[in-house]
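Ticket #4471: structure export looks truncated?
Reporter: QA, pipeline team
Priority: medium

Steps to reproduce: submit the single chain below to the structure queue and open the exported record.
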Amino acid sequence: IAEPLNGNGELLQSKGGPIRKTIRNCSLIIGLHPDQATEPIVELALSLRVPFAIIPCCVMPSLFPYRIQRISKEPVRSYSSFCQYLLDLSPSPPENEFET
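Actual output as written to the record:
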C-alpha cells in the first residue's frame, strides 16, 4: 500500500475504499527497515490485534526524544534499547521471548 503511515496508523485505518478494507482485513503486518514507521507499525498491529514482524533499523533519538524505557526511564539511544522499547509497547509480554 503506497500510503504514509504516521502516528499510530489511525489515519490509514480511517481511509475509505480498498485501503481501509485491506488494512482492516490484513492477517499480518510486516516492516523491513521501516525507519520512522517502525513504531506506528507496532501500534497499528496492536490496535488491530494482528500479528506483526518488524526488523527495526535506525534508532533516530534526535527525531524521537520522547522514547523512554519503561522500566529504567532512560532515553532510547541504542538499537537494543529501541528493540526493548518496541517490545514494551505491548500491554502483555510477547509469547516468544528472544534476546535483543
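Status: closed, not a bug. The export was complete when the record was re-opened. Leaving a note from the reviewer for reference: The chain has a mean pLDDT of 81.
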